[in-house]
Structure formats: C-alpha cells, structure tokens
Specification:
- There is one protein chain.
- By secondary structure, the chain is an alpha/beta fold.
- Helices cover 44% and strands 20% of the residues.
- A 6-stranded mixed beta sheet has the order 1-2-10-7-8-9, with helices on both faces.
- It is elongated.
Length: 403
C-alpha cells in the first residue's frame, strides 16, 4: 500500500503547494550532539499536515470530490484539509475537539471549511466525523491511518536525506503515527543505518504502550497540553509501519516539553506548539542516546494559542529553575524584608512578588511569614540563594516551584 514511488509522487504533487522547510543547526539544544531542527512549524498552515492532506485529496476521484470531504482533527490536519479542499474547489466539514486552541479553529474556518466542535478529545471528534460521513456520504480524510496521507508526510524524509545525507538519527513527534510512519519508511528504505525515534507525551503514550504489548491498544484517556499528539489509539496501518521501521518510541513530560518550547523561543527564535516541541524535549533531556551523533529534531507545528503559550512559558521557566517561590518564617520586626531582599539581590536574583502574612496558630504571637517569588538563573542559583538566607539565620519553611 505504501511505496517509495508513492512518496516520490507525493513530492512531485506537492512541489508547488508546500515549502521545503529549513534545516537549522541548534548547538544549545544538546551540547553533546550535533542537533538540527526541521522547521515544519514554518510550513504553510503552520504544520506538516498540509503535506498528507493535500496529497490525499489530490488522489480522490471526481466522484469522491463532488461529495465533499470530512475530517477530524485536533487542529492542524483540519487546516491542511481545509486549504486543500479550498484549492480543489470542494466543500469540507471538519470535526474538532472543543478544547482545541481557538487559533486552530479560526484558521480552519478562514480556509472556508465548516467546523463542528465536539466535546472531548481527538478520538471523540473522530467518532462524530464517522457518524457524519455515514449520514452524508462525504469522503473521509483520515489524519494518519491512510497510505496516501502517510506518503505525503513521508516527503519530509526525502527532504531530510537531501539536506543532511549523513544524518545519524531523526526524532519525530508521535500521535496517531502517520508522520513517523512516512518519515521512517522513506529514510529506512533509502538509508537503513539511520535511526528513527518517536516521541510521545507521557500523558498520551498510545503508540508506546501498543508497541510494548504487541498489539494496538486504546488508552482510557489522555492528559497533555500537546493537543496535536493527544491520541488515545494509534491506527492499525501506522502501528504496523512503526513496528517495522521505527527503532524506539520514548515519552516526555509536559514540563519537559514546556522547557523545550521556551528554549526554542529564546535560543532559536522559533515558536512551537506542544506537540511540535516534544522531539526537542527528548533531545534536551537525553531520552535517547545521541551523544556524538548528527540528529534531526522535527518541529512538527507552531500553531499554539497565545494564552496557552503564556502558560507554557511559565512552566518552562519553572522547570528550568528560572522562577521559584520561597517561604520564610520571621519575627515581626522592621528591616527583615530589606535584609532578605538584599541577600537575593547581592546574588543576582530578582524579586518579582512579595507577600507578608502574620503567623497562624502554630507560630509565635509576633511571628509572620514572608513569601517571595523571584527570578533566578537555574536550580543551582536557587539553592545558592536558599543557603545564603539560611546562613543569615532565617528559617526557610519551603522552596517551591511556581505553578
């Protein structure tokens, strides 16, 4: 069903539709490896999904096109299908989870598609799309479990081998598995020595669990801000391809992903959504042994809502030790706040929030609590400040992460 010829054909069909996204060196992501970023977040529609969606629709018969198309998506496939349908002059209906970022929903509508928001996650949107397909006869465009869609995504593999012929490994985000299936098939067929690793959110490890148990499995639920890969169940076709062509699938936490999003902003000047940053997180936190290797991390998308981005940046700062809370027990007398602030300032910390509370039933009558939120360089810097305050005779109740 999937062949190298089909992937080459997809590349030919897509040559005037997509852009060949840049491969950028990223020396600070992991200093023990030669890391490159494949910037599909800068692709048309803001993600790789246009590749598979457009190629699939290009292969439909005239009868199938006349019926219109229907799809389900966490948001990126929706935009790809909507744009492809618009350019082909056919109607499109997209079912999207109601928790999807507003920007993804509005962008999909801007391409002329009719959007139906479905309560729940991607899998609930999929069930609703299947119901509508049966009722209306629309042609279904699956986001990952389809050989034409997979072939479209596989064109990234061809680009990578052209841009960096001697690459040692590729790290790819995994939700339903369509992206990594296409990339792994193309790369392993043309360069079998290259490793291909999948990365999932720890709160949605459907492919990882399925591989471990030797059969397609469905999770009872998913929990991650990386909505683009929050899939309860992989496809049977993608499971088979991943089983054969992917070397390993690992997971990253949401905090690790948030740290990667922050690093991409600060160090590479790139915006990635949660799903788009998981491969970078895997490289940063050494989920796979890449020491001394030429490694490509695929940034699969950049369609993140600005309100979510703000929260993600905060989580990234916390994970990196750049923001911390400290609660200190004091005797209620003048000058102590000034002294503590001076200790922090002398060591390069920056106080950004202060709260002063008189003690409760468990403290002295003249006791009080001072809660300080501060900006710091890293976890070692937090510990340096903590030690200095303790050394000055103050009792620290807690040093907690700001969430």
């Amino acid at each position: 069903m999937l062949t190298l010829d089909k992937i080459y054909q997809a590349a030919y069909v897509l040559k005037d539709v997509i852009r060949t996204t840049d491969l950028i060196r990223a020396p600070k992501i992991n200093r023990e490896a030669e890391v490159y970023l494949k910037t599909e977040n800068l692709q048309n529609t803001g993600s790789f999904k246009i590749r598979g969606a457009y190629y699939k629709i290009s292969q439909l018969s005239e009868e199938e096109k006349k019926r219109g198309v229907i799809a389900c998506s966490a948001g990126n496939h929706a935009q790809g299908v909507a744009l492809a349908a618009q350019r082909s002059g056919i109607p499109a209906v997209i079912c999207i989870p109601d928790g999807a970022p507003i920007s993804k929903v509005e962008n999909t509508k801007s391409y002329g598609a009719r959007v139906e928001l479905v309560k729940g996650v991607y899998d609930d949107a999929y069930q609703r799309a299947c119901e509508l397909q049966k009722e209306t006869g629309y042609t279904f465009i699956h986001p990952f479990n389809d050989p034409d869609v997979i072939a479209g995504q596989g064109t990234i593999g061809l680009e990578l081998l052209d841009q960096l012929p001697d690459l040692d490994a590729v790290m790819v985000p995994v939700g339903g598995g369509g992206l990594i299936s296409g990339i792994a098939f193309a790369i392993k067929t043309l360069n079998p020595r290259c490793k291909v690793y999948g990365v999932q959110a720890a709160g949605a490890p459907s492919m990882k669990n399925s591989l471990a148990d030797g059969a397609v499995e469905s999770l009872p639920g998913v929990s991650t801000f990386a909505d683009g890969i929050a899939v309860k169940c992989p496809g049977d076709l993608t499971y088979d391809l991943v089983s054969r062509y992917v070397d390993d699938v690992v997971t990253v936490t949401d905090d690790e992903t948030a740290t990667a999003v922050l690093a991409l902003i600060e160090e590479q000047k790139l915006i990635a959504e949660g799903a788009g940053a998981v491969a970078v997180a895997a490289a940063m936190f050494n989920k796979v042994d890449i020491k001394g290797k030429k490694v490509v991390c695929l940034i699969s998308g950049g369609n993140i809502d600005v309100t979510i981005l703000s929260r993600v940046i905060t989580r990234g700062l916390v994970k990196a030790g750049r923001v911390a809370d400290m609660t200190i027990e004091l005797a209620d007398r003048p000058g102590q706040l000034r002294e503590i602030a001076g200790i922090i300032a002398d060591r390069g910390g920056n106080v950004i929030h202060v709260r002063h509370d008189h003690g409760g039933a468990d403290t002295d009558i003249n006791g009080c609590y001072l809660s300080i939120q501060m900006e710091t360089r890293n976890h070692e810097h937090v510990e340096e400040i903590r030690s200095a305050i303790s050394g000055a005779g103050y009792k620290i109740i807690s040093t907690s992460k700001v969430m």
